[in-house]
Design a protein that fits this description.
By secondary structure, the protein is mainly β. The protein has five helices and 49 strands. The chain has two domains: 79 residues, Immunoglobulin-like; 536 residues, Maltoporin, Chain A, CATH 2.40.170. The protein is globular, with a radius of gyration of 26 Å.
Length: 759
């Protein structure tokens, strides 16, 4: 036994020694054409998939880099991408990088939602990204508001606060939602999960459009929404900096305030953030959207240490709480009904360890654990003396072990992930006039656990053709407690146990699903600035707890789950064309998604009872495109998207499909004052609707926005933002906001202002 221990110790000593031997350090600085430092530029070693971010002085430092030949890629929004072959020798290497200003930004964003940092134009998947600058230039209420300006992405509303993302006609459980790599698992019948974030604390939002089950397992049949929060960085010397923002918009007399503080040096880093918002009822062209105000506040902490030169340990905590959130009534409630969230809460703890270059063939090995807790308390007052009070807790625990390996020309991502969501909830329906209280469960106490093994290989088959292929195996367990609805009634102080409602009661059971999924992606460089892409993905989705067990009564409209639902399976295709030039850029994607057992609501009794069911076969297809052009000193951006979806067995349209839509955006510099954006957004008529949906007419709205240059006052930089949304106060209706019967006119003219201080 001692002999084996000695052999293991010798092996470990040799491995550590080999890791630090023959390594190099690459130090550099990134500047612009005027030799001014470029902060927050992404510096990447292509062959090793290492990504670093420049500090305030434009500097970066990459340690423990094996000597050899590499491709150095540097990108920053607003600058042309930089790429150069370099030779790194053992010891210290210095380099100066100059970026050229380029206002055309297509393809320049660095995305992490594909489980590795990569520049958008080097990824075969169709990707959209909202940058920090884009978030700062407006005052969105939610993640969905911020994303709705991107081609192929639309917004559905349950009021001003609660919103949901629709990607190429798919939403809800057909998308995987992540925050800093941690899954967000919660109820999707009431849109609110993407409103539980401090937008002042978000660095960027990424959306990968199309099937991605290979990397994220169940749910990614329509895509992935990845929210990346602001994080501190390691820098060579001690630093302390921060920012503060304050915004106001008159459409709801709302304000927002945010604070971010960052500190660190070469061995540790830390961040503290806080935010608060308050808004009244939203103004619409013909009055007010009553009961649409809200209040929320948040704070977060994050930090990291380097106990070893190539070992990083990071921790993060986020807290967000909303109170007095109005849910505007409509057809689902009587005219005088009032529905609110007295409380909506999200807490997240995340611990991540990354070991860089542990072996010659291993670039990183990471282990991540997270706990995400969401509480939602709802209060509905349908009439005087009546009250419905559902509440629920959604808790998700997850762990991911992932490695990045290089074997010759192969770049492999392999790993294992496990996550488990548990649900507990209760609902009380009180009638004070009759002195009757009914207690039941909207969903049985239940759990959803998923374990998956995955790998993804990337290789250049030729100098022009890159192949990305992956596979994944998932094993899923769904378990619920026995639940007889109603649990009991209290009639004039006496508890009684009535007969169970058949469709709303469930026996205790455990179900299992397992599946293989895979993807094949090709990126072919036709010429220096022209790429063709092709993606093929086999995806799956196991129905959620809500879809299996739900029982919701919204003032007479009843939604029921179905425990006999079968898992969705789909085969998705995407073909793309990309052109990147100094004065003109374009990306065009066509897609098709073929489903078996797609889960939708069927109208069992029209306008009364809805129950989840499987569509035997369904087809989604369409296209989205964006073009950017620089004419003299101005920049033009044009986008368009279209999707159609059918139940192909019954030849019926599917619900929640956005109409043809697009935008035209014009950006012009105002001498030394800043930039002015003029934007027009149009939506065509939607006449091809599912049973129970309403047709909606087309419309066009126009926005004007201004962003100032940074004003230096001592050590403080001041930025000003202002704009007018829906400039002509157009009255219109979003087709995707019709599904739950809520009659909603979109917000009217909104004048907003914002100030940001940086130091």
């Amino acid at each position: 036994m001692k002999k084996y221990i000695l052999v293991i110790l010798v092996f470990l000593i040799f491995t550590v020694a080999n890791t630090f031997a023959q390594t190099a350090t690459l130090k550099g600085k990134v500047v612009d054409d005027a030799q001014k430092a470029v902060e927050l530029a992404s510096v990447r070693i292509k062959e090793m998939k290492l990504v670093y971010v420049t500090g305030k002085d434009g500097s970066f430092e990459i340690r423990n880099l094996p000597a050899g030949n590499y491709t150095l890629i540097v990108s920053r929004i607003g600058y042309a991408a930089y790429s150069k072959k370099i030779k790194v020798k053992t010891g210290l290497n210095n380099i100066l990088i100059t970026l050229t200003v380029s206002p055309i930004q297509l393809g320049q964003a660095v995305v992490t939602g594909v489980r590795m940092p990569a520049i958008e134009k080097n990824v075969a998947f169709p990707v959209e990204a909202v940058s920090k600058n884009e978030l700062e230039s407006t005052e969105p209420n939610s993640i969905a508001d911020a994303l709705s300006e991107k081609p192929g992405i639309d917004i559905a509303r349950d009021g001003a606060w609660g919103t949901m993302v629709n990607v190429r006609g798919l939403s809800g459980q057909n998308l995987v939602y992540l925050v800093d790599g941690a899954r967000i698992e919660t109820s999707t019948n009431i849109a609110g999960g993407l409103s539980l974030f401090d937008l002042n604390d978000i660095k960027k939002i990424e959306v990968i459009k199309g099937g991605l089950s290979t990397l994220y397992g169940t749910g990614a049949t329509g895509g992935v929404v990845n929210i990346v929060t602001k994080q501190p960085e390691f820098e060579r010397s001690l630093y302390l900096r921060g920012s503060a923002e304050y915004g106001y918009k008159n459409v709801n007399n709302g304000y927002s305030a945010g604070l971010n503080l960052f500190a660190g040096n070469q061995n540790w880093k830390a961040k503290i953030s806080a935010g608060k918002r308050k808004a009244g009822d939203t103004r619409i062209p013909n009055g007010y959207l009553t009961n649409s105000g809200f209040e929320d506040y948040s704070y977060s902490f994050s930090g990291g240490v380097l106990p070893l030169k190539n070992l990083e340990v990071d921790a993060e905590f986020q807290y967000f709480k909303a109170t007095n959130v109005g849910i505007p009534g409509g057809a689902a409630f009587p005219p005088n009904a009032k529905a609110t969230y007295p409380e909506a809460l999200r807490k997240m703890f995340l611990l991540n360890t990354v070991w860089r270059n542990p072996f010659n063939f291993a670039k990183t090995i990471s282990l991540k654990y997270y706990n995400q807790f969401i509480r939602r308390v709802v209060e509905i007052i349908p009439a005087q003396g009546k009250r419905v009070s559902p509440s629920s807790d959604h808790e998700t625990n997850g762990i991911t072990l992932q490695s990045e390996l290089v074997f010759g020309k192969h770049y492999l991502i392999t790993g294992f992930d496990f996550w488990q969501r548990t649900y507990e909830g209760i609902r009380e329906t009180r009638n004070d006039i009759a002195d009757v209280t009914i207690v039941d469960k909207p969903i049985p106490n239940s759990g959803f656990a998923s374990a998956g093994l995955f790998f993804n290989d990337e290789i250049y088959l030729t100098n022009k053709l890159k192949l990305n292929a992956g596979a994944r195996y998932d094993y899923i367990r769904i378990k619920n407690e026995e639940t007889n609805n109603p649990l009991y009634k209290i009639v004039k102080g006496k508890k009684i146990y009535p007969s169970p409602i058949k469709d709303a009661s469930f026996k205790a059971q455990t179900n299992y699903n397992e599946s293989w999924s895979g993807n094949l992606n090709l990126l072919y460089s036709v010429a220096k600035n022209i790429d063709l892409t092709f993606s093929l993905a086999k995806t799956f989705r196991s129905p959620s707890l809500e879809e299996r067990f739900q029982y919701i009564n919204l003032g007479g409209i009843i939604y029921l789950g179905n425990p006999d639902l079968q898992p969705e399976r789909s085969l998705s295709f995407n073909g793309g064309f990309r052109f990147y030039g100094k004065r003109f850029s374009a990306k065009v994607n066509g897609f098709a998604n073929f489903f078996n057992n797609l889960v939708i609501y069927d109208a069992v009794v029209k306008d009364s009872l809805y129950k989840k069911s499987n569509v035997g076969k369904a087809r989604y297809y369409g296209f989205d495109a964006e073009v950017g052009a620089r004419l003299c000193v101005t920049v033009w951006n044009l986008g368009i998207s279209y999707v159609n979806a059918y139940d192909t067995e019954n030849n019926k349209p599917l619900p929640q499909i956005p109409p043809l839509n697009g935008f035209v955006k014009f950006t012009a510099p105002l001498v030394n004052w800043g930039k002015l954006d003029l934007k027009g957004t149009f939506y065509a008529d939607q006449k091809n609707v599912a049973e129970g949906e309403e047709k909606t007419p087309g419309y066009a709205v126009y926005d004007v926005k201004f962003r100032s240059t940074k004003i230096q006052l001592g050590t403080v930089k001041i930025s000003l933002f202002a704009g007018v949304e829906n400039f002509f106060n157009r009255s219109y209706r979003n087709h995707l906001s019709t599904y739950r019967g809520i009659t909603l006119t979109e917000p009217g003219r909104n004048v907003f202002v914002k100030i940001k201080l940086e130091w």
